Amino acid sequence: MRLLLSSALGLSLVACGGSHTETSGETAADFQEQLQVQLLDAQPGDVIELPEGKFSLNRSLSLTQDGVTIRGAGMDKTILSFAGQVAGAEGLLVTGDQFTIEDLAIEDTIGDALKINEADGVTIRRVRTEWTGGPKTENGAYGMYPVQTTNVLIEDSVAIGASDAGIYVGQSKNVVVRNNRAEKNVAGIEIENTQDADVYGNVTTGNTGGILVFNMPNLSQSGGRVRVYNNEVYTNNYRNFGHPGTPVASIPAGSGIVVSSHDDVEIFENVVRNNRTANVIISSVYSTNYADDSWSDDFDPYPERIHVHDNELEGGGGNPDGAMLQAARVLKFGPTGRFPHVLWDGFAPEDRSHEICIADDEAEVFNADVPNESADPRVETEPHRCSLEPLAAVELAAAL
User: Fold this and answer.
1) What pLDDT, on the 0 to 100 scale, is given for residue 298?
2) Which three-class secondary structure state does DSSP give residue 382?
3) Does this model's pTM top 0.90?
């Protein structure tokens, strides 16, 4: 076992108020160099332990070895601050399999805070990623960012201030995202082009959109089989500060749970309330910034087999984001009226049933009729009163 910053290193830490210590000057440079050396020299089974303190780094860190654990003293006790970052595209980049990171924070990176690429066996536990200057477009895109990964567990973590998604899992397989908190991001939690994911026990609030399940064109795989359940998704009404042209830049402020072009999604036993555009939104990629003709032939733009049931839905829909949605609300429901809990853009395949099933009794469906330029927006609940077979639970590899 390797212990970083043992007494043999002889680093002096300077008090920084409260119980934190902070590196500065030569000490900061020594800490960064020693940490990067530990990451470069790490062997399978190594545990790199970081002490309590706030440590300043100005360049990206990277880890390529398999079977390594990075462990701090707590997400509010061990803080890696990249506020002075001058080089690198992220805070920490990991490409090794069977990787665990826990009990620390990564703050104020230029780009993504924690990126994990093409790894099998990923555990992110009690990690905080945050941009401490508040939500703004200049913040890094992603807080926690596993992409093209397998057997991923993200739990008991916090993500704040990302200009795309606080917690994002993309083009991955076998994923569990549980018991986390995401706030003041554009997307709190985003599952994109991922197969077999369970998202449960999370709290998303103060974001532009709470939980997003997206299937986008021109990526390495299509998504399928995502369960979103037992989450609290409320008051996600913050203005959209995403980079123009990105998929999340099209998400209206006040979006609770959003499904876009994804098949086989089960949304159940959530508490979803007071999201000002709609508590649940189901749409096609045609309603995003990616509606063009460059897609591969096998991309299906229509959401199908979406099952919404046994949720607690409250409020929301009374102040939708954007002039067109506001006009539609007033036209159909009056100046003080609200959209129903489920907002659907109306895109559906012509050659098969879309099977969008809304089994919650209090959840009417508003068809915005976007394919016809909203010529006939309407409430059409009865066609969606159906049920689907439950999706199977995700089983991660035993090592997690």
Assistant:
1) 80
2) helix
3) yes
